[in-house]
Amino acid sequence: MASTVSHHTGTRITDAASTERITADIERRLRAADRLVLPLEDTLELLHHLQQFELGRFLLHNRGLNGYWTSYIFRNRPKGPVTPLEHWLLNNSLLCQARERYHRFRELIAEHVTDGATLASVPCGVMDDLLEQDYRNVTGTRLVGVDLDTESLRYAEENAQRHGLAEHTSFRHEDAWNLGAEAEFDLVVSNGLNMYESDPARLTDLYRSFHRALRPGGRLLISFLTPPPPPPWEAPEHAAAWAKYRIGEDDLRRELSIMGDIVQATYLNFASESDVRSQLEAAGLTVQAVRYNAGGVLPIAIAVKQ
User: Fold this and answer.
1) What are phi and psi of 264, to 5 degrees?
2) Are 194 and 206 in contact (CB under 8 A)?
């Protein structure tokens, strides 16, 4: 079975020549496109600015994020000056909504920080979701990070050291679809992996892997993306629906230009709540709740192994 990996380069892209080649290929594709969200010259200007900062270059090379850059976005603590476009991505794009959901994840995880619990993050990335919890009043808690990306695992190990949790934490280089764990975890957290997979059968297999890894009574917290409405300039009757995402039309145009026309992001696979419920239940899990944010978007499903 093929593995789902969101990127194919390291976090730091220092090969300027490869960036120039990729940028030239993207420019040729954009110039040949029949339709773009923004005028061609505006789109090419965005392409130029994406080359000017590390996160932008990573997106151009990989069409998605790795653990390091996901953490960078969620923390929103850039080191040193940022370019205007990077500032926009961190503060005005839809990535802000992903950051809000990350903090809701942390609140839900906190409910499971109990004596003797074994908590797993799959894929863990740098594992901020578990490592930034408060473990001062519990004993015997064990944290497990699972990732197919060895660089993310290295960053996660360093993160565990910084938080003083290394002795309570272990890491595994495994595919989420083929976890070695059997009835081991009280909680599995998975934020974003299913967004890179569009095959319903593959998604059900992923959830079966989580089911096997959970103890009876263990819970899964998992995010998913529901289909967004059409852009308001194409379907004005849906304009109010975009208010839920807290993004204005100009910012939305820029968002779709960058992530759609330029980057062609690979992580935008959408699923309805009913589809996700069906897949989780087919995997043997019982859905307890699906929690949306205050605007009614960006859900987190909570499922239990009976």
Assistant:
1) 55, 60
2) yes
Cα distance between residue 65 and residue 56, in whole Å: 10
- Residue 124 near residue 171 (C-beta atoms within 8 A): yes
Written as six digits, the tokens of 138 are 């519990």
pLDDT band at 115 (very low <50, low <70, confident <90, very high): very high
Peptide bond preceding 78 in cis form (omega within 30 of 0): no
Cα separations (Å) of 247 from 159, 205, 254, 291?
32, 34, 11, 21
DSSP labels for 54-81? HHHHHHHHHSS--HHHHHHHHHT--SS-
Residue carrying the six token digits 């809701």: 104
Q: How does DSSP classify residue 231?
A: P
Contacts of 26 (CB under 8 A, 6+ apart): 47, 60, 262
CB 38 within 8 A of CB 254: yes
Q: What is the pLDDT of residues 228-287, one digit of tens each?
A: 999 999 999 988 889 899 999 999 999 999 999 999 998 778 999 999 999 999 999 999
Cβ-based neighbours of 80, under 8 Å, separated by 6 or more: none
* Domains in the chain: ranges and CATH: 16-93+230-262 (no CATH), 99-226+270-304 (3.40.50.150)
When pLDDT is cut at 50, 70 and 90, the band that residue 1 belongs to is very low
Give me the phi and psi of 44, to 5 degrees please: -65, -35
Is 42 buried (19+), middle (13-18) or exposed (0-12) by CB count in 10 A? middle
Q: Which residues contact 276 (CB under 8 A, 6 or more apart)?
A: 222, 224, 290, 301
Q: Which residue has the tokens 């503060």?
A: 91
Question: How far is it, in rounded angstroms, from Cα 158 to Cα 104?
Answer: 24
Residue whose entry in the numeric block shows the structure tokens 């300039």: 233
Reported as a single tens digit per residue, the pLDDT across 209-233 is: 999 999 999 999 999 999 999 999 9
8 A C-beta contact, residue 125 and residue 43 = no
